[in-house]
């Protein structure tokens, strides 16, 4: 029995030394606070320890101190019962101290039992209010976007999906940042294989710092060397809810105003959520316009270089004279002419994005007009190519997802070089490589090119076109959801008279 008490005493001494060691390390920070108080009922001394910059003073002064001082509380277990607060955690694990203090908790200890700790949540919430979307703006529909608070973002999702089947699983990623990451899915709808894949990839992440959802996009994607994004990020809660209802998963990262969606398809990057708020005929027409614009943006400059360099016979006679006149004073071959304008456009676009909003708009408009006019008058570029480059840049802006628009910007350059080497044959070879890469690409294990490949006619109802809602009774086949049927298609198509 004496040996037992000796061992317990040694364990307590070791624990106290460990706590003191942690305290010495944390005390180096200016915002560390440790204050002693006395309970008026039983004269017991207790200590509050917290990080001032992370804790809300009003919660401490108004909700915590009055009951701790005025009511008869003698131990940390009574703190959990007597304080009118929900986020209270009692522990004897000294390893929890650093973690809880730096997440906005106040540690309460009593002098007669220093081996027990009560952690009370009092985090200071500093953040911006909910605003309208800046990237995925829509003329009609909801006008609220995610912010940098994980709890607020999940609140906006749960407000639209008030069901118990919506499961939220939390992960802490980053050795230094301890970033909270939340995985959302609908139990009974989402494929278990997809859920397990994401859970495994998130739990295996070994990185010291995660600051934004874009980090996770690069880490957990199936192919990190592909220029194509394999997870779709969105700042719109309504789009996230629609994706969850389809049977997809969502990943929310604390500190990021964008939520990731997966698995995703190539066609989804050219769809705007506003398509669902318009008539299906208008929405389908606009989608086709976007797809044409993307194809035009990638191909028009390489085709110009290929035709002017190798295939003059393809140019109509009426247009040929105009082209010859526009190029007669140009000292450079078509490839250098095209590269000069393409790089100029990219420089203007990057400068406009990095400068303040008002200055950036001025640089983009004035710089484009001045440089374009000056280059034509100086004989460095032809006015025909300048028109093609301007239309190409304008067409690339129709892509509603920012990550995909960046990919389109890059794709033009390999096609340009192949057009210079082998003309239209080179463009065909480049297109073959691009198509092969896309066919091999997957998103969380699901085919990226679906429904084009594998070819599934039923999934075309919300891919290249947007069919009426009453024709979308089933969820996408490639997701292999546990509940494929969304609603009764027969009832949806049945239209009753107003008098029935």
Q: Secondary-structure map with pairings?
A:
Blueprint (H helix, E strand, L loop, with lengths): L1 H25 L5 E7 L6 E7 L5 H14 L5 H7 L5 E4 L4 H6 L3 E6 L2 E9 L28 H11 L5 E8 L5 E8 L5 H12 L9 H8 L11 E3 L2 H10 L2 E5 L5 E4 L17 H31 L6 H11 L6 H21 L2 H21 L5 H14 L5 H39 L1 E2 L2 E2 L41 H5 L7
Antiparallel strand pairs: 1-2, 2-4, 3-5, 4-5, 6-7, 7-9, 8-10, 9-10, 11-12
Helix pairs in contact: 5-8, 9-13, 9-14, 11-12, 11-13, 11-14
Short summary:
With 500 residues, the protein is an alpha+beta fold. The protein contains 15 helices and twelve strands. Helix 11 runs antiparallel to helix 12.
Structural write-up:
The chain has four domains: 9-121, no CATH class; 150-264, no CATH class; 277-447, no CATH class; 457-493, no CATH class. It is built from 15 helices and twelve strands. It has helices at 2-26, 57-70, 76-82, 96-101, 150-160, 192-203, 213-220, 237-246, 280-310, 317-327, 334-354, 357-377, 383-396, 402-440, 489-493; strands at residues 32-38, 45-51, 88-91, 105-110, 113-121, 166-173, 179-186, 232-234, 249-253, 259-262, 442-443, 446-447. Strand 4 (105-110) and strand 5 (113-121) form a beta hairpin. Residues 1-17 have low confidence and may be disordered.
Mean pLDDT: 86
Calculate the terminal CA-CA distance, rounded to whole Å.
Answer: 86 Å
Strands ordered across the widest β-sheet: 1-2-4-5-3
User: What percentage of residues falls in helices of 4 or more residues?
Assistant: 40-55%
pLDDT under 50 segments (min length 5)?
A: 1-17
Structural class: alpha+beta
Number of domains: 4
SSE order, as H and E? HEEHHEHEEHEEHHEHEEHHHHHHEEH
Count of individual beta strands: 12
Largest sheet: 5 strands, antiparallel
Q: What is the overall shape?
A: elongated
Our count of helices gives: 15
Q: What is the rounded Rg?
A: 31 Å
User: What share of residues are in beta strands?
Assistant: 5-15%
């Amino acid at each position: 029995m004496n040996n037992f008490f000796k061992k317990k005493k040694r364990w307590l001494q070791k624990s106290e030394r460990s706590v003191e060691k942690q305290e010495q390390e944390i005390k180096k920070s200016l915002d560390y606070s440790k204050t002693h108080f006395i309970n008026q009922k039983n004269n017991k001394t207790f200590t509050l320890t917290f990080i001032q910059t992370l804790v809300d003073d009003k919660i401490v002064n108004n909700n915590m101190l009055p009951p701790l001082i005025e009511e008869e509380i003698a131990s940390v277990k009574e703190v959990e019962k007597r304080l009118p607060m929900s986020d209270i955690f009692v522990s004897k694990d000294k390893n929890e101290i650093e973690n809880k203090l730096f997440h906005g908790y106040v540690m309460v200890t009593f002098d007669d039992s220093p081996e027990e700790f009560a952690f009370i949540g009092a985090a200071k919430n500093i953040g911006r209010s909910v605003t309208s979307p800046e990237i995925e703006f829509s003329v009609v529909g909801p006008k609220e976007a995610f912010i940098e608070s994980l709890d607020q973002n999940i609140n906006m999702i749960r407000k639209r999906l008030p069901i118990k089947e919506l499961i939220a699983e939390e992960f802490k990623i980053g050795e230094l940042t301890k970033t909270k990451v939340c995985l959302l899915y609908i139990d009974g709808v989402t494929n278990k294989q997809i859920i397990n894949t994401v859970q495994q990839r998130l739990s295996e992440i070994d990185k010291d710092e995660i600051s934004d959802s874009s980090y996770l996009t690069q880490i957990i994607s199936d192919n990190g060397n592909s220029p194509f994004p394999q997870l779709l990020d969105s700042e719109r809660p309504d789009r996230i809810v629609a994706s969850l209802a389809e049977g997809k998963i969502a990943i929310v990262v604390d500190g990021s105003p964008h939520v990731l969606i997966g698995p995703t398809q190539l066609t989804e990057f050219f769809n705007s959520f506003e398509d669902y708020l318009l008539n299906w005929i208008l929405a389908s027409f606009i989608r086709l316009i976007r797809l044409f614009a993307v194809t035009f943006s990638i191909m028009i400059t390489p085709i110009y270089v290929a035709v002017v360099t190798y295939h003059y016979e393809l140019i109509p006679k009426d247009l040929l004279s105009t082209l010859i006149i526009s190029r007669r004073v140009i000292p450079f071959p078509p490839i250098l002419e095209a590269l000069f304008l393409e790089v100029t456009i990219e420089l203007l676009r990057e400068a406009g994005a990095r400068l303040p909003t008002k200055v950036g708009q001025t640089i983009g408009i004035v710089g484009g007009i001045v440089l374009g006019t000056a280059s034509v008058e100086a004989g460095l570029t032809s006015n025909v190519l300048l028109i093609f480059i301007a239309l190409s840049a304008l067409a690339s802006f129709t892509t509603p997802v920012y990550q995909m628009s960046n990919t389109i910007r890059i794709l033009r350059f390999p096609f340009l070089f192949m057009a210079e080497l082998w003309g239209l044959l080179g463009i065909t070879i480049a297109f073959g490589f691009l198509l092969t890469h896309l066919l091999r690409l997957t998103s969380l294990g699901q085919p990226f090119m679906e429904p084009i490949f594998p070819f599934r006619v039923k999934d075309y109802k919300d891919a290249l076109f947007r069919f009426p809602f009453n024709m979308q009774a089933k969820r996408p086949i490639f997701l292999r959801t546990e509940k494929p049927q969304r609603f009764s298609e027969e009832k949806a198509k049945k239209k009753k008279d107003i008098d029935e």
